[in-house]
């Protein structure tokens, strides 16, 4: 029984790290999007990057919530 507890703790830590990884990628796409908006890139590129950033943030929140179950 003690080994099951240790295995579950490892999986929780791994999923939390994946969630933070997804948050970091989403934030990176958001910052890249902000730079593109300030420089004056095409609007469809800005919207595409914003959608990608939102997708990674949603993936991070989903991974974070799955860890709590």
The shape is: elongated
Profile the largest sheet. Answer: none
Low-confidence stretches: none
Structural Rg: 17 Å
**DSSP, total strands:** 0
Give the helix proportion (percent range).
over 70%
Average pLDDT reading? 85
Report the total helices: 2
Strand content: under 5%
Structural classification: mainly alpha
Listing every helix as H and every strand as E from the N terminus to the C terminus, the arrangement reads HH
Terminal CA distance reads 20 Å
Secondary-structure topology with pairs:
Elements: H1 2-39, H2 43-68
Features:
single chain, about 70 residues, mainly alpha, 2 helices, about 0% strand, elongated
What's this entry about, in short?
This protein is mostly helical and 69 residues long. Helix content is 93%, strand content 0%. The protein is built from two helices and no strands.
Task: Describe what you observe in this structure.
The protein has 69 residues and is mostly helical. Helix content is 93%, strand content 0%. It contains two helices and no strands. Helix 1 packs antiparallel against helix 2 (43-68). The protein is elongated. The model has no long low-confidence stretch (mean pLDDT 85).
């Amino acid at each position: 029984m003690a080994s099951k507890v240790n295995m579950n703790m490892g999986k929780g830590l791994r999923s939390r790290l994946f969630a933070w990884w997804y948050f970091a990628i989403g934030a990176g796409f958001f910052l890249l999007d902000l730079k593109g908006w300030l420089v004056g890139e095409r609007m469809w590129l800005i919207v595409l990057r914003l959608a990608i950033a939102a997708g990674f943030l949603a993936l991070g929140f989903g991974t974070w919530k799955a860890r709590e179950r």
